[in-house]
Amino acid sequence: MSSRIEQVIDEIEEYIEGCKPKFMSSTEIIVNKDEIDELLRELRMKTPDEIKRYQKIISNKEAILNDAKAKAEALINEATVHTNELINEHEIMQQAYAQANEVVTMASKQAQDILDNATIEANNVKSAAMQYMDDMLAHLENIIASSTQQASANYDALIGNLNQYRDIIQSNRSELHPVDEDLEDVDVPAGGTDNLDVM
Predict the structure, then answer these.
(1) Domain ranges of the chain
(2) 17 phi and psi angles, rounded to 5 deg
(3) Is 29 helix (H, G, I), strand (E, B) or coil?
(4) How many C-beta atoms lie closer than 10 Å to residue 8's C-beta?
């Protein structure tokens, strides 16, 4: 069963896949800011809950070990009681010692096996939880990096377009004033402007 974080990431990926491409572009898409903000907001809200859930799983390691220790102590206590009962039987004292040692040895081995298995299981749960969270955070980091890179590229393209428009505007303004420059280059006759032909 997938977590809500995985579901939200899947929804973000599906949303990005479903976005319309930008006009005359094979790499850029048109994104609805409100929809992507809502998905990212839900992802931010769910991430702490997921982390708490896996922290709880990791904390269960102590409970598993304590349970194993309790079972081990119960086995040893049972073996000790059984040993005392056997020892009290004078006629079978030698047999009691042998059986007692065997029971204690077996109980100690079982207790050690329980502790070993509990430790291994707890470590496996902890490793799996940490690996899962690392994978999820890495995936989220990739999505954010990709979004940041895309936003930066869009911003650079916008600045480039604005600079082109500015150059065109400056060129158009220069073309509006060639008459002033031409008049400065005309030689006026000594008699003033009376001899100039007016067109």
Answers:
(1) 4-142
(2) -65, -35
(3) strand
(4) 20
